[in-house]
Amino acid sequence: MTVTTSRTMIAALQVSLDGFVQGPEGDKDWVGSWADALGLIPDVDTFVLGARMYPDYATFWHSIEANPDVVPPFQQRVPSKAEIAYARLAARTPHIVLSTTLERVSWPPAARIVRDVAQLRMLKGQPGKNTYVVGGATLVASLLNEGLIDELRLIVHPVVLGSGQALFSGVETPLRLELVEAKAIKSGCVVVSYRI
Questions:
Q1: Which one, out of 13, 38, 160, 173, has a CA that is 20 to 30 A from the CA of 190?
Q2: Using CA atoms, how far apart are residues 124 and 45, in angstroms rounded to an integer?
Q3: What is the pLDDT along the chain (196 residues), one digit of tens a residue?
Q4: CA dihedral defined by 7, 94, 148, 50, rounded to 10 degrees?
Q5: Burial state string for 135-152 with b = 16 or more CB within 10 A and e = fewer than 16
Q6: Any domain includes 190
Q7: What CATH code is carried by the domain that includes residue 48?
């Protein structure tokens, strides 16, 4: 475990082959496991997510943490070992929720709200380990626009959705990305990592 003088912010997201993070009706059932993205980021000590994503995220992962043998909301099966491990790690890791509308966050216990990007910029400048930018796509686009994300790690699924919420729809300027790695995994997905 290495502590650096500034934090590396890494966004790890699940995306369809045609660049969507959700289908046209907000559907995400094409994603096999939400725990996969965390495995792409070593030495995490903070999670960051947006206000739109937070309520369902907290409900889902808190449910798994509290009752790992029960089918959680938004899923049709009991959690996998990887999902249980993610829920337990998330429960003890500080979460920062960027929001101007939420009044409170209750899970995990170390979750807190920040009201503007300047506070995330201050966090990035502090010593620490990697910061996992969980999402959603609107948050990732806004942090890309602010120059705060250092790396993108995408799990590209072999599915074409045709429409929905595009990963980069809110990005305002062209981004130049440097390919770090691309590898196929057992599920048929391709994990692609870019440095910004």
A1: 173
A2: 12
A3: 555 567 999 999 999 999 999 988 888 888 877 677 767 788 899 999 999 999 999 999 999 999 999 999 988 899 999 899 999 999 999 999 999 999 999 999 999 999 999 999 999 999 999 999 998 899 999 999 999 999 999 999 999 999 999 999 889 988 999 999 999 988 889 999 999 9
A4: 170
A5: bbbbbbbbbbeeebbbbb
A6: yes
A7: 3.40.430.10
Number of separate domains in the chain: 1
Listed in sequence order, the residues at least 6 apart from 189 whose beta carbon sits closer than 8 Å to its beta carbon are 155, 156, 157, 158
DSSP 17-62: TTSEEE-TTS--TT-S-TTGGGGG--SEEEEEEETTTHHHHHHHHH
Range of the domain at 41: 9-195
Q: Is residue 3 part of a domain?
A: no
In a domain, 105, yes or no: yes
**What distance in Å separates the CA atoms of residue 192 and residue 195, rounded to the nearest whole number?**
10
Q: Return the structure tokens found at 60.
A: 């889902």
- For residue 2, is it within any domain? no
